Predict the structure.
Amino acid sequence: MKLKTRLANKLSTKLIGFLPILKAGIDELNDLLKEISFENPLIEIRNKKFVTFTNLKNAITDEIEALSIFKKSFYEELLEQIDNSRYFPTQKSRFIAHLIAEEITPDGYFEGDEKEIAQIVGCKEEDIKKIRKRFAYLSPSGVGAKDIKEAFLFQLENLNLDDEMYSFVKTIILDLENIEKYLNDKRFSKAIEIIKKFKITPTIDYITSQEIIPEIIIINRDNEIEIKLNEEFYPEIFIKEAYNDDFSKEKLKEARSLVDALEMRKATLKKISLMIVELQYEFFLGGVIKPLRIKDIADELDFAPSTISRAIANKYLLCDRGIIPLKSFFSTALDEEISANQIKEEIKNIIKNEDKSKPLSDEKICKIVNQKYNLKLVRRTITKYRESLKIPSSRERKKLYKLRGTNTS
């Protein structure tokens, strides 16, 4: 038992040290390693030459040259638009828009907390959401979206399409995971051509090789996909000779753990990139991206979903379609346990406020939940949650309401 406990503690210690290294972005990783080396005299960090967009252009495509340096930064232009846009007519709306802009990442996505912004401003969360939605009319198109689907919807708003095509394209965007079921529709080809023109990274025209260095490189050679890690980016860790004393032995152990952690990071990213290419193969051949679930990748690789979330955070992939954040390949969803709890609470509230003379079926509850949370739950999931809450079916509830003499008027 003691041996197992010691082993578990050892693994836990190593994992704890690994997670910050896994989650860190490129610049953060270098800073993190240097910080660790300052505290450990046996560690020496040597930086290799960075592989950037510029010196990769021959290996990928000439599309790289489309990236150029702009006189004004993305944020400067965004704030100017906010201050001069009719979509933010009041001082309060502009103030909120500025707070939202501060939470937009370099790739153009909003990663803030609308609830926290509402608390700062002293208004309802719904008011923050409404103002963020107005970013759909700002440039670059797609900026301020929470995920790839919303970025596509923002870009759709800026196209001059007839109502029928607009509705059809919107339907496909909201259901990208199941795009195959629309193949036989006569409007499908035109809709796909529209979607393929949308930018996965809204700020792609503002990104320069000095700002973002991709960790994964995807090369398409005559439809043969090659996956490479940007090995030239990774700093090298050298371990100096240690003295034969307790302090040196402890620092030597730490140094070796750091080397292991960096190798674990590489291995994890390589596995994830292989899965992305396998499941998004059509996209790398010019097709449409199909958002994946973090849980599916986690199950396939036998990782915890939280590990995958850390691994894709602040990481970028380079292919002949540009620089793409890894998170763009995944549909944004709440942690499964949080999600389940929220959905259960929603089910309870829906049933609590239902018309007692016409109790809602699980199918109708499912539609309400999906619409509110932009999910794709199926009826049996709602049934499972309802039963776990010990709530009777709609038919049984109707009988109970009558027995209790509930006022159904």
Remarks:
- Residues 73 and 206 are 7 Å apart (CA to CA).
- Strands lie at 43-46, 216-221, 224-229, 236-239, 316-319, 322-325.
